[in-house]
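Renewal narrative, Specific Aim 1. Our central claim is that a sequence can be written position by position from structural information alone. The example that follows is taken directly from our test logs and has not been curated for this report. It begins with the structure tokens describing the chain, in the order in which they were read.
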């Protein structure tokens, strides 16, 4: 049995067909189940049926019947009726349809349309206000899912004396007086580590000049880089993190302001900022568009991004609270984008990234022998350390009356300041409508690096430096005033070159990309907390090459493989190769 909506729609279809096809068939009078005698006009009989079925009101039906009879009379006056001999007698119970004027058909269709819409609005089964709400048309949902197998392969000639400073700072303070330090694994391969990355984006067009969005992503921890989630762990559940949450305001066509937690707003490479790094704060962009010319555009970007506000109760174990300098990143960039020809586009971007209050400093004398837990500069220790940056002692440990220290509980901070000049040059050459060659170059110099800072805190605050010194008495000091000294190993420059050939966006079966490149990243060119988490398993102080490619295997599904081979630049040997094989699905 049909429900009411299905019956109604079926009725509308039948009526429309009857009205527009001019009804070239006879309607049987007895099917009307009425005591009214059948009319010679088929239109009159049809309207009567519609009135009886309550599709038309009685008043409208009466008006249509009068008009139909009038039109029929007019037609007969213009065109003489055929003789009785020319027409075969109609079948019993049938009505002959000699002519239906076009004006009558059009009016019937209009009347039916209006009545159907009125009834639909009254009953709420086919009106605009009962359709999908307007806000659903302002949402854009997208995302991707990656399944990857990664193998970390270590040289057997690697040093086994690479300290795990991230663990020391996270679990410290650590007693460096003859204690056994935690060390990184540098010799035992980790093969076929299966992991996933899932990201879900929701963008909302709030109005013509306001857009908002957020991204949910997986991740093993709350590290600012890497949204990978390593499988295993006894089938335990996986964490989902709020990766992005932002609102973008466009007061004019050439200016935008983004606030919240956003995707990297600057042109950069993974050598400076990991591709998964999100920025907290405010970013502004000014875009000349076509104001300069149709082929040249200039963009100016800037932003302020808080890194650490500090503990509101710092130091919690002391009644006298020292000041805690807030840590920020202030960045600016100018980009020139030019279409040199129909086939060649060149992008040049010059940026400056100034990290404030990240450099470590030696504390005031800290009387750990009297039960003191916190020292004045403990808050300067960096978050999310990886490996490679030069680190120094933060604590000036002391005792009452100059007694011998039996333990040396220490934290480590960054030896140098970080103010990065970041230059990027990208050139795209179109081979045809789909294929292109992309060449990318990146040069970075940390102008906050000053060799005079190496021993600015004397022997008490000298660095631990990539094999140059371990900070132990048996190893020559970098900052000794007498006797032998160690040599500082490190630098402040980085560069990278990459060439990619293939389809612009390989998302269809058979489409492909291949890339190859070389990277050189010195110890203190960038912060090891934010740089690429995959090459050399993160951090700085390495050089090497990388190869990779992807190919579409289904629509929006690609298969890829990547090889990265890196060796240390300064200090103890540390060679690491990384192999990744993955499937990535987008939607």
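The sequence written for that structure reads:
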């Amino acid at each position: 049995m049909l429900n009411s909506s299905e019956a109604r729609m079926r009725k509308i279809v039948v009526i429309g067909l009857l009205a527009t096809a001019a009804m070239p068939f006879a309607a049987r009078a007895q099917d009307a189940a009425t005591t009214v005698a059948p009319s010679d006009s088929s239109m009159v009989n049809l309207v009567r049926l519609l009135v009886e079925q309550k599709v038309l009101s009685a008043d409208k039906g009466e008006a249509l019947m009068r008009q139909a009879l009038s039109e029929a009379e007019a037609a007969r006056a213009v065109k003489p009726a055929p003789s009785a001999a020319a027409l075969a007698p109609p079948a019993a119970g049938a009505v002959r349809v000699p002519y239906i004027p076009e004006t009558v058909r059009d009016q019937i269709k209009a009347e039916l349309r209006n009545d159907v819409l009125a009834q639909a609005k009254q009953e709420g089964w086919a009106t605009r206000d009962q359709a999908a709400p307007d806000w659903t048309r302002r949402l854009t949902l997208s995302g991707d899912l990656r399944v990857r197998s990664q193998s970390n392969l270590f040289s057997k000639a690697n040093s086994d004396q690479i300290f795990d400073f991230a663990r020391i700072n996270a679990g410290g303070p650590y007693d460096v007086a003859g204690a056994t330090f935690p060390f990184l694994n540098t010799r035992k391969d980790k093969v076929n580590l299966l992991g996933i990355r899932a990201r879900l984006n929701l963008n909302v067009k709030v109005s013509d000049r306001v857009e908002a969005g957020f991204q949910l992503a997986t991740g093993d921890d709350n590290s600012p880089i890497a949204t990978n989630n390593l499988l295993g762990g006894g089938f335990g559940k996986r964490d989902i993190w709020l990766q992005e949450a932002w609102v973008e305001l466009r007061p004019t066509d050439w200016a935008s302001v983004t606030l919240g937690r956003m995707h990297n707003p600057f042109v950069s490479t993974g050598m400076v900022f990991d591709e998964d790094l999100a920025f907290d704060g405010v970013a502004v962009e000014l875009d000349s568009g076509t104001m300069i010319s149709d082929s040249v555009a200039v963009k100016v970007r800037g932003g302020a991004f808080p890194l650490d506000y500090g503990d509101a109760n710092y130091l919690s174990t002391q009644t006298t609270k020292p000041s805690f300098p807030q840590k920020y990143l202030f960045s600016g960039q100018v980009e020139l984008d030019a279409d040199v020809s129909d086939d060649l586009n060149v992008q040049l971007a010059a940026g400056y990234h100034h990290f404030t209050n990240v450099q470590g400093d030696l504390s005031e004398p800290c009387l750990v022998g009297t039960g003191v837990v916190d020292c004045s500069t403990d808050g300067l220790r960096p978050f999310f350390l990886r490996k490679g940056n030069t680190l120094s002692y933060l604590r000036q440990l002391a005792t009452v009356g100059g007694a011998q220290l039996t333990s040396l509980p220490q934290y480590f901070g960054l030896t140098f300041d970080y103010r990065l000049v970041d230059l990027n040059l990208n050139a795209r050459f179109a081979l045809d409508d789909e294929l292109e060659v992309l060449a990318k170059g990146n040069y970075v110099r940390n102008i906050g690096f000053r060799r005079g800072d190496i021993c600015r805190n004397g022997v008490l605050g000298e660095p631990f430096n990539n094999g140059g010194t371990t900070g132990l008495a048996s190893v020559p000091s970098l900052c000794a005033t007498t006797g032998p000294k160690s040599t500082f190993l490190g630098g402040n420059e980085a560069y990278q070159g990459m060439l990619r050939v293939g389809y612009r966006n390989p998302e269809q079966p058979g489409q492909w990309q291949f890339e190859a490149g070389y990277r050189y990243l010195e110890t203190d060119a960038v912060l090891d907390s934010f740089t690429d988490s995959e090459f050399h398993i993160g951090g700085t102080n390495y050089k090497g090459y990388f190869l990779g490619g992807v190919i579409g295997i289904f629509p929006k599904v690609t298969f890829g493989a990547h090889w990265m081979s890196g060796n240390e630049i300064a200090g103890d040997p540390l060679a690491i190769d990384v192999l990744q094989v993955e499937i990535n699905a987008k939607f």
